[in-house]
């Protein structure tokens, strides 16, 4: 490593050394200004980009609205919908790019400025201070008189000590300078390289997206050319028809313009007539009348349901009316009522009367024909009816995270299409994905799949361990259990439309999950414990400081040498189950395949069996399923009792409520505090657990940890509470907290995931609370 300032010159404290220091200090000051400026420009760029994404999304929503408006035109609706989906993907890619930019430029360079440059400044202050002290000692030593032996010795000793201190601090300062000068290159280049890789991924995603859209756009362009030609042809035809109709002379037969006949829809005649109301005022209203299906009906508006005037024309007669003041009137008379109508001309009146009479005759003929057909049949034919009914019934980052995750069986290729070297992951499913499948997963929504990059994102240790516990082989055994039986083939790389349909069917509709293993028993039977016909009550235990467990329901007590290990075994779901009407050996548990999905998830959470948990969720298990037989404990509480940090992380990533409590008012944070599970306490606090919640005895987690004298958990809870109060006082809602708070929690997370034995310092049994 090339040294900017020489160590030997440092010991001499020569003018050359002082000049080199002055040059370095000026360079570092200018570097700080440049980095601050770059970070500010990066922030401005990100803010502008986010504003662009917002405006772009509004524009895309406008396209979707236009597509919905054009629902009667399949070509326009399909094209606009496809284009809006592609634009939405590009917005997602832009968002990822801005997130990666913030991590690579803003976060990394700010960390360099705050950490490394701050250390340099601190070292500079110490050096300047000791330099001044050295100068003072030299002056004092020079000024002392030789006849004052006591002062001479004192000045000499002070000078000697000051020189030693100066040399030590000067050497540290020079070391700090040389390290900084070396590190600045790697930090700046690493930041910019990460920034450029983010752009590479962005443009690669956009290229893949529009490469797939290209053939469709080309076909649409050809179709558009044909549409233009057809539109021009239709325009000429309409202009010709318009000219032809305009040249006709309707003066001799105006009646043809006043009514219409639509034989294809069973309409004998239709048109406007005035109808006299049956009220006391005898008002006349113009309505659209029609004769159809042997009925006379009218409408006020097109979308209104027709009002029936005569239900069966066979039962009515029609006649002229000349005894009223209005002209061109006729009356339709039925056995129960009569209807007075008025046409606009005599010809129209005659046409309507003739149409009604013709319809009456036609109705008689049709009815007689139906009767003859029924008489010819000796027995009713049920075949058609049957067929009709049948038809109705139908903190690790980059290559490190990538290498560790890809080592898991099946993870070296995409979980859905098999493309090699996948660099994306679904963290709640625990699978690896190629860039194309990751975009499709992202469109499903975070309640189905949460996508993260294996090379560009920072990975928390518990999340990385979760990925290593599952993997593509495990998940595909669940979500593709029936794939071969159904004869479905997995899509190949590059088949985007097939991929979209397949991924949606696999994870959203869960078509390939073997649902035959879902329990048909009611939940209350599946959680019942029976033994030789006698039901045993479930006992809920409290932890005493003396190491005993005490039941709420009886005076039974049980000794334990280690409260943390014994408690979970007492309150877990490992009970004996049997279906109603069946008597089995109470020592034999039912197979998990016969369990209700919620109960299977509940048991597997305690047993730390992530594949079984994933299977239960695939079968539709409620991640917050409360076990009514065990104080409404949830799978997350069982995961706490089981002592697995990864199990808790898996449930939280799949939507578990970190604040859901049991009947005793204790949530996951309460139970983790009681058991002294420091890593779980840290995880729940990071995930927004409410540490102010109290149980039925009025105790919150902090008071429990104080009583138990667990220093680690007390520290975490108090830090979280102080950070919360600080954010509220400063109005920083939604912010993660200051750097000290984040560093401490990051250290605890690393320790809980990688060195859990360091947190096992809580040796006393948890006290009863």
Automatic annotation (TrEMBL):
Q: Where in the cell is it found?
A: Cell membrane; Endosome membrane
All copies of the PH domain together span 266-361
In residue numbers, the region (Disordered) covers: 371-392, 549-568
GO annotations of cellular component type: endosome membrane; plasma membrane; ruffle
GO biological process terms held by the UniProt record: actin filament-based process
Report the main location listed first in the record: membrane
Please name the Pfam families in this protein's record: Ank_2, ArfGap, BAR_3, PH
GO molecular function per UniProt: GTPase activator activity; zinc ion binding
Q: Does the keyword Transmembrane helix apply?
A: no
Tell me how this protein sits in the membrane. Answer: Peripheral membrane protein
Record has NAD as a keyword: no
Q: Which UniProt keywords apply?
A: ANK repeat, Cell membrane, Coiled coil, Endosome, GTPase activation, Membrane, Metal-binding, Repeat, Zinc, Zinc-finger
What ranges does the record list as Low complexity composition bias?
A: 379-388
Xref: SUPFAM superfamilies: Ankyrin repeat, ArfGap/RecO-like zinc finger, BAR/IMD domain-like, PH domain-like
Q: Which residues form the Arf-GAP domain?
A: 399-520
Q: Which residues form a coiled coil?
A: 117-147, 217-248
Q: How is its activity regulated?
A: GAP activity stimulated by phosphatidylinositol 4,5-bisphosphate (PIP2) and phosphatidic acid.
Question: ANK repeat ranges?
Answer: 631-663, 664-696
Q: What is the protein's quaternary organization?
A: Interacts with RAB35 (GTP-bound form); the interaction is direct and probably recruits ACAP2 to membranes. Interacts with MICALL1; the interaction is indirect through RAB35.
Q: What is known of its domains?
A: The BAR domain mediates homodimerization, it can neither bind membrane nor impart curvature, but instead requires the neighboring PH domain to achieve these functions.
Q: What does this protein do?
A: GTPase-activating protein for the ADP ribosylation factor family. GTPase-activating protein (GAP) for ADP ribosylation factor 6 (ARF6). Doesn't show GAP activity for RAB35.
Q: What is this protein called?
A: Arf-GAP with coiled-coil, ANK repeat and PH domain-containing protein
Please tell me the species this chain comes from: Nannospalax galili
Q: What is the lineage of its organism?
A: Eukaryota, Metazoa, Chordata, Craniata, Vertebrata
* Primary gene name: Acap2
